Each structure stands twice: as structure tokens, then as C-alpha cells.
Amino acid sequence: MRGHDVTAGAARNYRAFAEEARGRSPLYESLAGAVAGDASVLRFLDSLPPEKRQPNLLFAAARYLLGAPPGIGRLRELVSQNPGELAGVMLSRRTQTNEPARCATLLPALAQLAEPLALIEVGASAGLTLLADRYSYDYAGHRVAGRDPLAPTLRCEPRGPVPLPSRVPVITWRAGLDLNPLDVTDGDDVRWLSCLVWPGEGDRERLLAAAIDTARRDPPQVHRGDLVTGLPALAAQAPAEATLVVYHSAVLAYVTPARRREFAETVRGLPAVWLSNEAPGVVPDMPVPAHEGFPFILARDGRAPLALADGHGAWARWLA
Ligand SMILES: C[S@@+](CC[C@H](N)C(=O)[O-])C[C@H]1O[C@@H](n2cnc3c(N)ncnc32)[C@H](O)[C@@H]1O
After folding, report:
1. CA–centroid distance, residue 311 to ligand 1 (Å)
2. Are 14 and 33 contacting, i.e. CB atoms less than 8 angstroms apart?
3. DSSP secondary structure string for all residues of 160-225
4. Is the torsion defined by CA of 17, 20, 25, 29 positive or negative?
5. Could you tell me if the CB of 250 is within 6 A of ligand 1?
6. Residues near 142 by beta carbon (within 8 Å), at least 6 away in sequence
7. How far is the CA of 113 from the centre of ligand 1 (A)?
8. Is the CB–ligand 1 distance for residue 179 below 6 Å?
9. Is 266 in the pocket of ligand 1 (CB under 6 A)?
10. How far apart are CA 125 and CA 79, in angstroms?
11. Among candidate residues 214, 130, 213, the one with its CA nearest the CA of residue 171
12. What is the average per-residue pLDDT within 31-54?
């Protein structure tokens, strides 16, 4: 592709991101809009592999180096004065946002399964979404106490007939699998995780910090590996007497459609319940409910949508 086409493509992506950030992060909305019209930043992006040109990655890397979310002026300066360092962070890091509040949409589905549970999360990032039993919950006044009294309370608005549990399930074994596990005890990894949260998104940074403290008290194991090739061996380690649950959220969009099918076949071949929390159209062959304005579908076994869910766990609409 010629340079002009590449920068035109990047400009379109950044304009689309500005739309996505509207109402969520005024700073990123205006920054993405400014990048879309900035020849020097677009040329810098042009020097990176296509999968490394994403707004989220650029903005988090700039924030990581500058210590604060930049405006277009500081970003332009960074690109002209320190392009190697910026490219280095973007090439070595990935968008691995780990959103503990997604556990609030997962919990009602977990609570319907026979206990004890053994949990495998593929694409687990730092493992914060492996700790569904440690957090406490507040579903519009319906409270559920977690096992760690110091852990944060996740607030989620229940919509429709959400089967709200009275307690957290018993999870006797848990393991994560990720191409690049982040370590909650490593200062740089923790700083990267916080740089991935969009500025202006209310409580998310505070919640992330509290979830990291929770994980540090008893860090979950996140193994390095691919979600297709690494899954069978990890599943074989789960205790036979527990209900094995293979779970993922905001992960399958990162792999090709062919790989998603291989993953679906792999997980269906295991003695496991499969819970997915992904954008519509991402889980192969899964019907998309005829509703509007929902980022994620929570589904069981890749076939039955259970709920529509906010991307960050703020609400869940049960479908049953
Ligand atoms: C956006 S994060 C989501 C993290 C977590 N599931 C959550 O909901 O907060 C996506 C994660 O998927 C991981 N990932 C992407 N492709 C993968 C693959 N083929 N195998 C394993 N992990 C993968 C990334 O490294 C990243 O940590």
C-alpha cells in the first residue's frame, strides 16, 4: 500500500476512535480527532506495522513515557523528538486492558453452575478477571459479599431477569492463559495497565488499583501461551471433581476468524462449560440478538446468548 493510502487509513481509524470516545473520554475524543489531521503523527504511525497503529496503543504508550495523558502538542513533540522510544514501547507492548468490573456480568452465569468450579480464562492479561469470587458486588442494592473483605465492590445495573446470586461461588482452582501475561507484582506492568484506562472514565482507575491490590494478596497464575494450542494441556490440569469453566472476554476479536473457529472446536472438545463475553459477530456462528446498543454478548457454549452486557461491566441485560 502506498504511504498516502496508509495515512488516509490511519486518519479514518483515528476519526472512528474519536466517535467511540465521545461521551466517555473528552480528552481522547479531541486527541484522536487532532491525530487524524496531523501529518507528522500520521507519518510516524506509517512507520509501524499495521497492527501497531491503534489509537489505544499510541495514547497509552505516550502516557507511559510522559507520565500523563498528552494533548496533541505534547504528542507531536514526542513523535518528533523521541520517535524511537515511542515506537519501542508500541512495539513491545500490547493493548491488554484488564477490566475487573467484567466479573459483575460473569458472576450470575457462574453462580448457576454446579460447584465447586475450576476456572480457566484465556486472554487473561494480568488475571484480574479470574477473581470473581474475591470481589464484592452491588447490583442496584442487591449485595453479594466477596471472599476478600479488602477487595473492591463492583457496581452493575441489572436489567431484565438477571439471576442474581446470594453468594459468590466456590472456585477451587483457577488459571489464566495469555500470549503475554502481565504481572501484578511488576511495577512496569502495573503502570502499563493503568495507562490503558482512558482518562475521564470515572472510577475505572481507582477500581483497577484496588483490583491489583487484591490480586497481589494472592496472585492468580497466568500461563504464557496461545488460546488454541495452550488450552488442552492447561485444562488437563484442572481437578476432575470440579465443573471446569473456560471463560474469555474481549479476546477473540484479537485473533483471525479462522483461529476463532479453531478455538471454538478446541473448547467444545473439552469437558467444560464455555462462557464468552465478546462483541457481536465475534464468536463463530453465534446468533446476534435483535437489540441495539450493546457492546458484548455473554453466552454459554458458543450457542446460547445469556445476556447483553456493557463492555466494562456497568450493566447486564438478561435475555432468558
Ligand atoms: C483486551 S485484553 C482482555 C483481558 C481480560 N480478558 C479482560 O476482560 O479484562 C485481551 C487479552 O487477550 C490476549 N490475547 C490476544 N490474543 C491471544 C491469543 N491468541 N492467545 C492468548 N491470549 C491472547 C492479549 O494478550 C490480552 O491480554
Report:
1. 14
2. yes
3. SS----SSPPPEEEEEEEESS---TT-HHHHHHHHHTSPTT-TTHHHHHHHHHHHHHHSPPPEEE-
4. positive
5. yes
6. 158, 164
7. 24
8. yes
9. no
10. 28
11. 130
12. 96
pLDDT per position as a tens digit, 248-266: 999 999 999 999 999 999 9
Give the three cell numbers for residue 299: 453466552
For the segment 114-137, what is each residue's pLDDT rounded down to a tens digit? 999 999 999 999 999 999 999 999
Asked if residue 35 lies in contact with residue 42, where contact means CB atoms within 8 angstroms, the answer is: yes
* Residue with the three cell numbers 506492568: 189
- Domains in the chain (CATH in brackets) are 3-92 (no CATH), 100-318 (3.40.50)
**What span, in angstroms and rounded, lies between the C-alpha atoms of 262 and 244?**
19
- State the greatest distance between any 2 C-alpha atoms of the chain, in Å, as a whole number: 59
Cell for 266? Answer: 478446541
Joined grid coordinates for residue 297: 454478548
Q: Is 123 in the pocket of ligand 1 (CB under 6 A)?
A: yes
Average pLDDT estimate for 85-103: 97
Q: Is the peptide bond before 83 cis (omega within 30 degrees of 0)?
A: no
| Cβ neighbour number for residue 260 with a 10 Å cutoff | 22
For 278-303, the pLDDT digits (tens) are: 999 999 999 888 887 788 999 999 98
